[in-house]
Design a protein that fits this description.
With 548 residues, the chain is of the alpha+beta class. The chain folds into 3 domains: 12-130, PH-domain like (Roll), CATH 2.30.29; 131-269 and 529-548, Rossmann fold; 276-363 and 383-521, Sandwich (Tumour Suppressor Smad4). It has 14 helices and 22 strands. It has helices at 70-75, 112-127, 149-163, 178-185, 200-217, 246-252, 257-265, 295-305, 313-324, 355-372, 431-440, 466-470, 478-484, 536-542; strands at 12-18, 21-28, 33-38, 53-56, 60-65, 86-94, 100-108, 135-140, 167-172, 193-198, 235-240, 270-279, 282-287, 290-294, 328-336, 385-397, 421-427, 453-465, 505-507, 510-512, 517-528, 546-547. α3 runs parallel beside α7, α4 packs parallel to α5 and α8 packs across α9. The two termini are 42 Å apart. The protein binds adenosine-5'-triphosphate. Adenosine-5'-triphosphate binds at residues 141-145, 173-178, 198-202, 205, 242-245, 509. This is Ceramide kinase.
């Protein structure tokens, strides 16, 4: 009688040589682990402790025939090898602060047959990692950040892609929006991912190109603020080479090109919420990190005027904006995200394999199933909350927005893929109070714990500046009002600090001209080659390569 169970994969275990030491090397396909340990620990090592390394197959970067170093081979002849038969395994090694490095180890086999058996077994097991990309489209911004995009890609990323057997088509952009426009034309189907080498602006270009392309292909009108956008299944990789690299930092935990390249090679997948921003029935932009009016809008306005200062422009402009201390009047309406499990002040940080994001993912799947069966999913329209006032800042963040300058970010407990954004309202306050609020972003204290700060977890919101409410809203474009210096109405005396012109919206570091906007969160609209920020303690229990 035949058994119903598939045959158990056989464990391959051999004695191979590594750095002139005999090692017991084991490939356990059942547990997806490659491990090795020295049979006789080298002098100076603790002999009572069996040393060894275990690497999950999921973290092997590549396996290949070793490049033979003649000198080394000659010194190996004592092992009775008449021909060199060695293979090299490259794998991920975790360093401090979420930094990854590609480590390599070479094993020497006593005969050709054993060598091919190992090579075949390792190739077979890597073939099963079907989520890994084989072909990538790469866009390089040669002018982002310190203008080192090309150099970073060629020196740190391309050699790793090539070692991992990834084919690439590389486009060095020639003008702003080159990547975005190109994504409307290329045959994206033939790629497993799109990689951008640059900063947040470059990522935003690729994001707009890809989402726009998918909506075009599936006949979705992106000008309709209520349209159900089609999800993009092609993943985006970010090789950080910009000034801030906020999206990379918040999804991987570090701005490091080699770490990002390794996440791409391993085929990581992190779903990400995207917010659409509209003015009436006109699409303006997509945002994945910060949509900020008031303080962060003004910081961007000044920093754009001073691009020649390079990355330092953000500090200069932040300081200047703080000194000007403007507040803006208007009304904010929003619908709370009632179904999400977390709240902005619960201190539950979004980490890799985040439970809250996974729950949203399940809900999204169920919603899509219901829609596929013909039932309409309807949002409730009756739970709008409106807040009127004078604001120093209105920020909607769909991720923590952590970056090296602000390691906790604007909303430390915001989630990457829960389908919501944290709406932070900083009401008019003294300069000192505002400074206290800003300083809290760099400390462990709750930055929302002030009487002038409110935070809500929302699925959408609308903002109307004060003067816009007083005007004929159907015919007036707010951007042009600002430009014409239309007299502004402040309900207090002019000395109240309310600004006479509007601020602008800062949408992921790009300016938006219109001030009256509506924003909606699209749950897990795109996917990144990332895994969220690893919780070092948890990850240690689950897998990483470690000395046992
Ligand atoms: N070849 C190019 N010439 C001029 N501008 C370009 C080119 N390629 C891309 N851009 C534009 O440059 C802008 C800034 O690029 P990028 O985001 O890479 O760097 P950055 O602004 O220094 O970094 P960050 O956005 O992280 O602060 C983007 O908005 C992008 O559209």
């Amino acid at each position: 009688m035949e058994s119903d169970h598939p045959p158990l994969p056989t464990v391959l275990c051999s004695v191979l040589s590594m750095k002139r030491q005999s090692c017991e090397v084991t490939l356990d396909p059942g547990r997806s682990l490659l491990s090795w340990r020295e049979l006789r620990p080298r002098r100076g090592r603790d002999r009572s402790r069996p040393g060894g390394v275990t690497v999950p197959v999921a973290e092997i970067v590549s396996v290949g025939e070793a490049e033979i170093d003649e000198k080394y081979y000659n010194s190996m002849k004592w092992q009775h090898m008449c021909k060199p038969h060695a293979f090299t395994v490259r794998y991920v090694q975790r360093k401090r602060k979420h930094r990854w490095r590609c480590k390599e180890v070479t094993f020497w086999c006593s005969d050709e047959q054993l060598f091919y058996q190992w090579l075949q077994a390792l190739h077979d097991i890597l073939e099963q990692q079907t989520h890994r990309p084989k072909r990538l489209l790469v866009y390089i911004n040669p002018y982002g950040g310190k203008k080192r995009g090309k150099q970073i890609y060629e020196n740190k990323v391309a050699p790793l892609f090539s070692a991992a057997g990834i084919c690439t088509d590389v486009i060095v952009t020639e003008y702003a929006n080159h990547a975005r426009d190109n994504l409307y034309e290329v045959n994206v189907e033939k790629y497993d991912g799109v990689v951008c080498v640059g900063g947040d602006g470059m990522f935003s270009e690729v994001l707009h190109g890809l989402i726009g392309r998918v909506q075009k292909d599936s006949d979705v009108d992106h000008n309709n603020p209520n349209a159900q956008l089609s999800r993009c299944n092609i993943r985006i990789g970010i090789i950080p080479a910009g000034s801030t690299d906020c999206v990379c930092y918040a999804t991987i935990g570090i701005n490091d090109p080699e770490t990002s390249a390794l996440h791409i090679i391993l085929g990581d997948c992190q779903p990400l919420d995207v917010c659409s921003v509209h003015h009436k029935r006109t699409f303006l932009k997509y945002s994945v990190s910060l949509l900020g009016y008031g303080f962060y809008g003004d910081v961007l306005k000044y920093s754009e005027k001073n691009r020649w200062l390079g990355p330092a422009r953000y500090d200069v402009s932040g300081f200047k904006t703080f000194l000007t201390h403007h507040c803006y009047e208007g009304s904010v309406s929003f619908q709370p995200a009632k179904w999400v499990l977390g709240s902005p002040r619960d201190q539950i940080i979004c980490t890799s394999r985040c439970y809250i994001c996974r729950q949203s993912s399940k809900q999204l799947e169920e919603q899509q199933k219901t829609q596929a069966c013909g039932s309409e999913h309807r949002d409730q329209d009756d739970d709008w909350t409106t807040i009127k006032g004078k604001f120093m800042a209105i920020n909607a963040v769909s991720m923590s927005c952590a970056c090296p300058r602000s390691p906790k970010g604007l909303s430390p407990a915001a989630h990457l893929g829960d389908g919501s954004a944290d709406l932070i309202l900083v009401r008019k306050c003294s300069r000192l109070d505002f400074l206290r609020h800003l300083i809290r972003h760099t400390s462990n204290k709750d930055q929302f714990d002030f009487p002038f700060v409110e935070v809500y977890r929302v699925k959408n919101f609308q903002f109307t500046p004060k003067h816009f409410e007083d005007e004929d809203t159907e015919s007036t474009d707010i951007g042009s009002i600002g430009k014409k210096n239309f007299p502004q109405i402040c309900t207090d005396h002019p000395s109240c600090g309310c600004n006479h012109v509007n601020s602008i919206w800062n949408c992921d570091g790009e300016t938006v001209d219109q001030t009256a906007i509506e924003m909606r969160v699209h749950c897990q609209l795109i996917k990144l080659f990332a895994r969220g920020i690893e919780n070092a303690k948890l990850e240690d229990d689950v897998n990483p390569s470690k000395v046992l």
